[in-house]
Amino acid sequence: MSGLLGRLGDWCARHGRAVLALWVIAAVLLTAGSVLFPGPVSNNVSIPGTDAQRAHDLMREGFGAGLDPGGTVQIVLYSPDGPLTAQRRVRAVHRAMDRIRQVPHVVEVETPYRVGGLAPSMEIGLITVKMEGHDNSKLAENTKRLSAAAEPVRRLGIEAVPADSSTPADKEIKTGASEAIGVVCALLVLLFAFGTLVAAMIPIFTALVSIATGLGVISLLGHIVDVPKQASIMATMIGLGVGIDYALFLLSRHRKLLADGVPVHEAVRRVVASSGGAVVFAGGTVVIALSALMLAGFPLLRTLGWITGISVVCAVLTSVTLVPALFGLLGHRVNALRLPFMGRRGSHGSSSGWASLGEWVARRPWGVLVLSVVVLGALTAPALALKLGSLDDGYADRGTDQRRSYELLHAGFGPGMNGPLVVVADLETRIVDREPEPAMLRILKERVADVDGMAHVADPILNDAGTAVLVRAVTDYAPSDPRALEVVEDVRALRIEGATVHVGGEVAAMADAGARISERTPLVVGVVVLLSALLLLLAFRSPVVAFKAALMNLVSLGAAFGALSLVFSMGLGSGLVGMDPPVGAESSYLSTLFFSVPIDTYIPLMLFAVLFGLSMDYEVFLLTAVRQSYVRHGDNRRAVAEGLGSTGRVITSAALIMVAVFVAFIAYPDPMVKIFGVGLAVAIAVDATIIRGFLVPAAMVLLGRFNWWCPAWLDRILPNLSIEGNDEEAEAEEPSRELVGAARG
């Protein structure tokens, strides 16, 4: 592989203009295509085989307009100056309803002056709009049109806030300011690391080209497959981080070779043959980890995983083609436009400070190992208190329609109105006689109403075929309240002769998602760990290295989950990351800074896949450097110290860039993005400092020559995919490779 990559890098360097033009054209065309022909995004959070999905399937069978999920939109009215029943307000409401009826696909508009349509205070009411024949994937656009049609009530001072039937996972996430902040922070780190403007711009430029290409592909894929609305933000977060990092590793190595007097094209060939191989393997571990989400049993996660992997593939491709093309075009001008206050910083890949740290760790491995384990244990301990649940709109950003409608429904009708249950009874015997009311309908309503925690149960509806009965029920609890899940289970436990009860709705769907993910988590974790370890085994031909790398990555994950627990589950600073206190929380100053936030059940598994892959990046780059040193002289302790010294600065710079990118996304208003930002930033920071700087080197020193031990039978059957390349430095001391063979034997 190193020979193939070396030839590829050399060809790209010699045909730099053509390669650069091809990438720029591809990025521009794909971006233009995604703007002119944007692929639809999906709000499909269905989970085949679950009880909630069965309830939703039954809802589509003859219950009339608007009962299909995504077919109902509510306009929440609030009159702060008096009751909605005042004559002039009634006239304004009716004018708004007439305008709403003119919106395409609207088939029924229910007045707030019906039973259950007005709150007891008479100041809050609901206009319920039922739609048919519309595109569910464009629910947000339909809701905006309906909200605009309610303008007559706003002229009278009545607040009109839309509330659609989507879940928090459906909310469209738009990117913009966070990416700009991340790019600026990354540029500052690169300027400090390299000291020249041209060198700092190379990783930024290649990452932007990579992201533009990846997002264009993802958008156009929306015409073929269901693309989740979260795909663009996840692809941008991960693609921006790895795209800059991979180019940074290649650039650091290239500048060192140039400083050593190696000709430009020869330096490019060596860089791509060695560091390029490390990039390919590092990217492979990220893609493997994301692809394993296909086993989670949750279509949203499955699609989100492999689509996010597209951005990683684009980052790898630009790193091994576009980056060497830029090296060839720039030549020694890669060091042009040096910043005067930076001196000659970054000319070499090594750092005396990191080299000294490597030697210090190598002299006292036991002490460093024990201290690192204690610190990491302390960081991981809070993870035991991690609280999973449903993150409802009560935690949305203040000022958004989602948050305001949630507040009004909570105040007027109770917390359960924000997450009503949809109870559907599948009948064994078809009901034909509908007059008087069939006993089955009465029994179902009474049994559901008797469940503890039930606040209100609407009149049952029989479908056209007489084969199913639907009842809408409102609990006493908010969707994020764990007690709401208990009510769902109690309703599902009802046994009614002649009928099978199913429960749908937001609360039921999130409960089923949590159960499915919990069931599949061991499988996903096992597959990710085993495949990543196998990839490292192929790369370094050492079972010990592969096992140790997987173990260290799990340790960094523990620290990330510990941080999430501290900030969100324990509430120690949730307000400091921009979260707003939930509806109903006390309004004291401290309550705005410290409050508990549930973490959606799918987020930890997604974080695990992403973090495991990203953490493996630094492991690959560190091990590659250690391996090259060991091949040259066979001294394990010295190889560890030299490996840490040669990669310390570049790994730290790469980690700082990733942390800056992820921290920038914490400023994003969506709670899910904040949670991802905190978890990713903490994990990368811990991984690049405590784990790669202390724990891994200490463990490798203690393992000695066993680091590179491989059973003879395994050594014979493993393909030769060495990623450290055929660097002339190693070739000059080819006899020392016998030391590695002796260690393996």
TrEMBL record:
Gene3D superfamilies given in the database record: Multidrug efflux transporter AcrB transmembrane domain (1.20.1640.10)
Residues of the signal peptide: none
Residues spanning the membrane: 20-39, 180-200, 207-225, 231-251, 271-298, 304-330, 366-385, 523-540, 552-572, 647-669, 675-695
Membrane disposition: Multi-pass membrane protein
Pfam family membership, one: MMPL
Location of the protein in the cell: Cell membrane
Domain SSD positions: 200-329
GO cellular component, one term: plasma membrane
Keywords assigned by UniProt, alphabetized: Cell membrane, Membrane, Transmembrane, Transmembrane helix
PROSITE patterns associated with the record: SSD
Highest taxon listed in the record's lineage: Bacteria
PANTHER family: MEMBRANE PROTEIN MJ1562-RELATED, MEMBRANE PROTEIN YDFJ
Designated name of the protein: RND superfamily putative drug exporter
Lineage: Bacteria, Bacillati, Actinomycetota, Actinomycetes, Streptosporangiales
